[in-house]
TrEMBL record:
Domain JmjC as annotated: residue spans: 128-321
Top-level taxonomic group: Eukaryota
Protein name as annotated: JmjC domain-containing protein
Family: Belongs to the JARID1 histone demethylase family.
Gene3D superfamilies xref list: Jelly Rolls (2.60.120.10)
Pfam families registered for this protein in UniProt: Cupin_8
InterPro entries: Cupin_8 (IPR041667), JmjC_dom (IPR003347), RmlC-like_jellyroll (IPR014710)
Species of provenance: Datura stramonium (Jimsonweed)
């Protein structure tokens, strides 16, 4: 059966390379360039690294909110606003609530002190997040650039290039990032608070149920304090992961039935990145992110995007992703996944799936298959 080799692949990748627990390697200090290349970049394997940013002035200076405000007081920054804390995520369609759309945040450009206040005063129905995936740390937040290293020498040497972009993320516990992937090698440093990642390797692409959704944007009314959701014109479809790994209790059974490949397959890798730690997130890995703030109510992180190599791994991934999702939807083959009657044939209808062949290219072009991408992180 066609689905069996693909399901076997998920387990073999873990048996041979990634490990069979939900943990990833934790290095007590930065690796050498050769170790990083051989043990993590080449096998496309994540790791957590301690004691790599202890020398950064940011690790102490950014604990002071007055320091951030004074340093960035003249800066205009991008504030992302949503009614849920989930931007670049799926939301009920504004004119057909029984279906979904891909919703992006309202973006306002404000002086940093005002924008930070909006983050700190966020409510569950109006969540502010400071981020912009356009090398914002070296542009909007350039006054802070001297507080962090411009790159990680061990990563730069191993990858053979300097970072393509460096981004700053300032948020709170109300912000959450839906599952997505990036076409970058990502060195993700947490300066304050914690980030909680769920990770799945590129080989698990079918478990993400990537489909195309019409793009929409939130609009925030200063007069009413309410959001509306407007579809983009002309219509533009965005390929996006359909799975929410944390469904509400009343929706959990329904979600498990809709997405059995995710919920009944191998468990995702889990990692909490604490202040002062770095996550190496390899290119094309799917990741979902939550965060816990520090005592002020802030989580601050800086991520360095290095260009990925479009090599044979990329070709393998494109081939795997091109296989029709319906190949895995045989209700008679419960086996490893134990799906049996949980399958809903309408979920497995290939007409409901996105055209997989162009997903990687289109996502790389518009950065929706990010980050944090515009995604929160």
């Amino acid at each position: 059966m066609a689905e069996e080799p693909i399901q076997n692949l998920w387990q073999e990748v873990r048996d041979l390379s990634l490990g069979t627990t939900t943990r990833i390697d934790h290095l007590p200090s930065p690796p050498t360039p050769l170790q990083f290349l051989r043990e993590y970049v080449s096998p496309n394997k994540p790791c957590l690294i301690s004691n790599a940013v202890n020398h950064w002035p940011a690790t102490t200076l950014w604990q002071s909110t007055p320091y951030l405000i004074n340093t960035l007081s003249p800066s205009i920054v991008s504030l992302h606003l949503t009614p849920t804390g989930r931007a670049d995520a799926l939301s009920p369609h504004p004119t057909s609530p029984s279906s979904l759309c891909f919703a992006s945040a309202e973006v306002q450009h404000l002086p940093f002190p005002d924008a930070l206040t909006r983050v700190l005063e966020s409510e569950p129905d109006c969540v502010g997040y400071l981020q912009q995936q356009n090398d914002c740390f070296r542009s909007e937040y350039g006054s802070l650039s001297q507080d962090c290293d411009p790159d990680f020498p061990w990563a730069t040497e191993a990858l053979g290039c300097l970072p393509e972009a460096v981004n700053l993320w300032i948020g709170n516990d109300l912000s959450e990032t839906s599952f997505h992937k990036d076409h970058y090698e990502n060195i993700y440093a947490v300066v304050s608070g914690e980030k909680h990642f769920l990770l799945l390797p590129p080989t698990d692409v079918h478990r993400m149920y990537i489909r195309e959704y019409p793009a929409a944007e939130y609009r925030y009314s200063q007069d009413t304090g309410e959001f509306s959701l407007e579809l983009e014109e002309p219509v533009r479809n965005v390929p996006w992961c359909s799975v929410n790994p944390y469904p509400s209790p009343e929706l959990k059974e329904k979600e498990m039935t809709k997405f059995p490949l995710y919920f009944n397959g191998p468990r995702p890798f889990e990692v909490t990145v604490k202040a002062g730690e770095i996550l190496y997130l390899p290119s094309m890995w799917f990741h979902h992110v939550k965060q816990s703030p520090d005592g002020r109510g802030l989580t601050i992180a800086v991520n360095y995007w290095y260009d990925m190599r479009f090599d044979i791994k990329y070709a393998y991934f494109n081939f795997l992703q091109s296989l029709p999702h319906s190949m895995l939807c045989n209700p008679a083959s419960s086996g490893y996944l134990g799906m049996e009657s949980q399958y809903n044939s309408s979920i497995c209808n290939s007409e409901d799936e996105s055209s997989m062949g162009d997903i990687t290219a289109s996502a790389n072009d518009n950065l929706y298959d990010d980050p944090d991408g515009a995604v929160l992180k």
